[in-house]
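Page 37, top half.
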Amino acid sequence: MKTYRARKSLLILAVALAAVFSAHAADNAPATAPVQKTVSVRVLGDNKRMPEVNLEDVTVKQGKTELQVTNWTPARGDRAGLELFILIDDAADSSFANQINEIRSFVTAQPETTSVGVGYMRNGTVQIAQNLTKDRNQAANSVRLTLGSVGAFGSPYLSVMDLMKRWPSSDNRHEVIMITDGIDRAGRTRVYRGLLDISPDVNSASLVAQKSGTIIHSIYTHGVGRRGRNFWEITNGQTSIARLSDETGGESYFLGTASPVSMKPYLDDLQTTLDNQYLIEFHAVSGKKSKLQSVKLNTAVAGVELNTADSVWVEAK
């Protein structure tokens, strides 16, 4: 009888201690905030069928901490909404005329769930040729010849920031296709010139894009003027747009230092990217201040890679 009572007392004590430790752990658990971002799923190699990727196949880490993934939804059906802006650098040279019909065909082929806008980058701003619309023919007809002039303050990075800051928030995906040589002709704060001379505005544009959840794709096209003929400037411009696209989860296309003979292969590949995107939701560890937090996504599905922005905006708790 005494043994039974002793065992019962020990059991009650163990349960009480477990409750205390559980409450203590809950009080000391790091604060988290729900976030959402867009992920592009690509198959490695050519001519391979896209496999099914499910929630349990995806992991998210913030530093060494594995985060709880709460939702993994294909960007299809009622979640297929996409707002796609095509930004064309007015500093592009006359060879851009060869690409106009291909861009128009790309626009008219967009699904009904996609709204398309067209703008021209000039003077560090965006001249809107067509606001976001689901009238694809109207958007396609707004694509025109470039002026072949940089304007007084030519920077594609200031221009794309101008667009993002004016872009109303929505539940749709926000993506940009920048067609530019990537050369920052404003050159506001450069201290030297040479290879890897990347404008600080590239970093600023990347931060704005990641904070707003905007994906920026880029296609190189040859620009006008002395800088447009300079190998160093061309190389730095390509490096800059490639970095901006990589950090924001986009694709970047260029081949050598000349304009592409055809943009259709690039646009076709971009369409594959747009058609295979998911919306992921997870709880990120928040800090004392709202800020961008670096996260890394991986999948257990063989032959598949996930492409997304380097960071996500996490609200303070």
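Page 37, bottom half:
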Amino acid sequence: MNNKIKKNVTSFLLLVAFTAAGLFFAENTIKRIMANNSNHSEIMAKSGLKQSIKLLFIGDMMFDRYIRQVQEKKGGDFIFIGVKKLLSDSDLTIGNLEGPITNNPSRSVDTELSSKDNLVFTFDPKFTQILAGENIKLVNIGNNHIYNFGESGLEKTRKYLDDSGIKFFGDPEDESTRMILDNIKGTNIAFINFNQFVSSGEQKTLADIKKAKNAKVDLIIVYAHWGTEFAAEPSDKMKNLAHEFVDSGADLIIGSHPHVVQSKEEYKDKTIYYSLGNFVFDQYFDPDTQKGLAVLVKIDSESRMQFEEVYVKMKNNGQTIQE
């Protein structure tokens, strides 16, 4: 073997050795970073890499009247024990908080269905810890009951949710919390409320969709509080609004307020769930109000969505169970 060949062989072997050493060092560095940081998802998000995620959407949650009494006697775990696995098997659970959280005494406990106070809700601050413990860490507050204890009730709601680490959107007063932009394992999602019970609700939602598009998020999800209570199907007005939101840029629409499960629709390759019905509620007077729909949305690294539907039932002992 002449000197030139020997020199080339030596250079090649050195290159292989250095490459192997570099790969070994890089691999072990990554392993050390993973081992020293328990929040792998945060690292992935900061690096810009996307992972598959699961979001769970649930319907109306009301924690006053009979539900408050159940919690006081049996604890919050009793209410959710039948859906604990369902709630925990997602990266984030999102639902509608049907009223304010305050330290005011209840006005609705033990009232008659026909009385005015029967529809005035306030939730014990203990429920924030219960929700956080059940992985319900994002709630919509844009609904017709959030003002049941006035502006002070709304202010207290913000405080108690913040203190418990629960994010919220749909604020009827504060534009900065009317929608929320969240990064979940590298996927940027805008959660936007439509509340038919506030002035210029449609225009506010369209404005928020536009802001989200300008922020170049991966997905825009509208959680709407709309429609007619106990109506089996969405109205033409709801459908027109849903189509308008999709035309403006919404990727998914989730509805609440009718207290019964309504139909879904595919419009321009986007999914619309007009009403998920109840999730925690004491409306035991009709089988339809005792039935709710939970929607598990699986989102891949390309922001494509797959849907899994799970029906739940509200038992008259205060529990919600998976059917």
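Margin note: Residues 12-45 have pLDDT under 50 and may be disordered.
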